[in-house]
Amino acid sequence: MDTITAIILAIVEGITEFIPVSSTGHMILTTKLLGYDEQEPIMKTYEIVIQLGAILAIALVYRKRILDLLGIGRRDRGRGGVMPASRLNLIHVILGIAPALAVAFFARDFIKGLFGASTVLWALVAGGVLMIVAEWWNRSKSRVTAHELDDLSYGQALAIGLYQIISVLWPGFSRSGSTISGGMLSGVSYKASADFSFLIAIPIMCAASGYELLDSYKYFTSDTIMDFAIGFVISFVVAYVVVILFMKLIQKIRPTHFAIYRFILAAVFWLFIMR
Predict the structure, then answer these.
(1) CA–CA distance, 138 with 190 (Å, rounded to integer)
(2) What is the pTM of this model?
């Protein structure tokens, strides 16, 4: 892998990891167009490295919330200096990540057997359909009971965690796509669903990347370390910018817009991967 390829892949990873468009589909398509085999061990290792860069970016964006969850940050009090009756805590996070982690741990080999170009293609389409349905359902104000992240109930956090299993079992479905859609279908606002999706991505991706690194550390050599470092930094910077922009433009960029993009990507996927 040359340096230009490393830079391109890092940019693609940074852009697509946290928005609901399937980073898996983009990485497969990009490596194919660049003439590389995405399943090669060195490429898989590089993907883990740039994912870690993206994780660091999201951790930086949500650093105050993370410190708050750990009891380190300064908590914002409501009127009269009283803490809000309902507030996001570690139990919400655990409920949001436990189902996916359990399925990934016990079905790791089975999930690897599911991976394939046709699987990703149909996941892009199915994920887009789910996002359109979720937005339609969420339009009714009476169905939204959690407008902010701190309004999230334990039941809604668990529901989002269960929806996340879809992305674990169906490569290409998009983790953020399944969690944001799951949140909206569970009565959580679009913004709060995105916030929670990004927040629970940190422990989920750290666990997944850390586990994969146990098999891939041997590919960190003097020949690869520079490209790995470049990719890590670029992925970090791009992911940070993308998440900040996404949260600022969240009312203008609706799930249906991402769904349409997914349908277009599926068509491109069909032309360049399947045929």
Answers:
(1) 8
(2) 0.90
